[in-house]
Design goal:
Elements: H1 6-46, H2 51-67, H3 69-79
Length: 89
């Protein structure tokens, strides 16, 4: 028990490849990186903002995310019951 071992990471990577297809992994990594960057920035800035300012910042980021092409593609592929074609935009 305790610390993460190298074989844990190997199993995680194998599961990712099986779930997401190797071709989609670079996009998934970019998307996750963008999300984590936004979260880190918001958490850091929240120390210096009022609650209202923090909500305003979060709302602005949410609007940006909802307006991107990949969000629209995600909704369309779900409604049309087809595989998504994400572009990273």
């Amino acid at each position: 028990m305790g610390a993460l071992k190298p074989w844990h990471i190997a199993i995680f990577v194998v599961v990712l490849v099986l779930l997401f297809d190797a071709k989609r992994l670079p996009y998934a990594a970019r998307s996750l990186g963008r999300s984590l960057r936004i979260i880190k920035e918001q958490v850091y800035n929240a120390m210096f903002q009022s609650l209202g300012e923090a909500f305003e910042t979060a709302e602005q980021e949410m609007v940006k995310s909802l307006q991107c092409e990949d969000f629209k593609e995600g909704v369309a592929h779900f409604l049309e019951k087809r595989a998504p074609v994400f572009t990273g935009k």
